[in-house]
Amino acid sequence: MITLTRLLLVDDARVDFIWLEQMLRRIPGPPRVLDWVSRFEAAEQAIAAGGHDLYFVDFRLGPDSGLDLIRAARRRGVLKPIIMLTGHGSEAVDIAATEAGANDYLVKGEFDHVLLGRTMRYAERNARALAELDRRATQLQALVVDLKTETERRALAETELSEVLRRTVVEQEAERQRIAHELHDSLGQSLTLLQLGLNRLGHSDPAKAGEVGALNQIADELGREINRLAWEIRPTALDDLGLQDAIRHLLDTWGNRTHLHFDLHLMLQDKRLPAVVETTLYRVLQEAVTNVARHAEAVRVGIILEATEQEARLIVEDDGRGFTWDGGSGNAVSSGRLGLLGMRDRLSLVGGTLELETSPGGGTTLFSRVPLPPAGRR
Ligand SMILES: Nc1ncnc2c1ncn2[C@@H]1O[C@H](COP(=O)(O)OP(=O)(O)OP(=O)(O)O)[C@@H](O)[C@H]1O
Ligand SMILES: [Mg+2]
Known about the structure:
Layout lengths: L5 E5 L3 H12 L7 E5 L2 H10 L4 E5 L1 E2 L2 E2 H10 L6 E5 L4 H10 L3 E4 L5 H92 L4 H25 L2 H4 L3 H15 L3 E7 L7 H22 L3 E8 L3 E8 L13 H4 L3 H11 L3 E6 L5 E8 L7
Parallel strand pairs: 1-2, 1-3, 3-6, 6-7, 8-9
Antiparallel strand pairs: 4-5, 9-10, 10-12, 11-12
Helix pairs in contact: 2-3, 5-6, 8-9, 9-11
The chain binds adenosine-5'-triphosphate and magnesium ion.
The site of magnesium ion (MG) has 4 residues, from helix 9.
């Protein structure tokens, strides 16, 4: 059943109009109206007005081409069925018509009302399918645009986040350095003044010498405690002497506090790494050793620090109870565990990576690598 009722013929020959109209009358279905325009411009206007359900377009329109008319209509988004009429059929006409945007074609004088009806039905179905495809393609395009926007937005957010993280780490280290100096210098100085005063007091009043001596001892302990605190906050060796000394000092402290035995292989010779790399590796080791002491129940801890021209490597291995590691897919803030993920974040800020090998009962080995800039640019 053909539901199309308003049809338009674009043809420069009136005889074709009369003949087509007669043939349409022989097709069963609701009454149809066939309008007729003979010139290109008039056809463009009629098509733009959109009052018809289907168009028949002649291959030749006087000096103009029916193909051009069809192309122009499709370019403007006309999705309705279009059937091309031509004087003679061939594969070339078929290809040209469909490429221009026609849904089918008929050869004048070679079709009857049955073929006409069928062609109209097929053209309508074809046009509808193409319109649906077009709609989906548009949706898909919109989706692609959305996806691209979203990807860009995320990339930007990630860049911003990593910049915030980088600034936080830099500021944190600067603040630690300031506090460490403050502790060491100001408090140290006040303490020295206190001890000098105490000494004077002891000399001027021998009766109080015992009491003053005891106070002096407390002041000594206080001094040592302040130095230890200052060192923990920001090891001066990290800035002055370098990573290896800072590591030795760190492990001495842990050795005194725990029963852990450290096998230390420092293979930097006297080479200094970029300050930010030294700080990063120091903080990674600090957290790794803290984790061993807190969680591993280990006896031995092996530590290797080495550097090639291209990268620095820090390996920390313990013979403790190990654990199940999910690969560190989470986010340090949301997991609430800042240790391992914090290490990974710190390392990634200097382009480095963290890998972990561990299994329950099998100990834990932590590999961290940081790429080094070419020697000239350090
Ligand atoms: N060397 C280790 N041996 C055994 N278990 C470990 C070791 N290192 C980490 N773990 C396990 O991995 C978990 C996560 O470690 P992570 O350092 O991220 O957090 P945390 O030490 O629990 O807390 P914090 O945020 O204070 O560091 C630990 O709770 C522990 O169960
Ligand atoms: Mg930890």
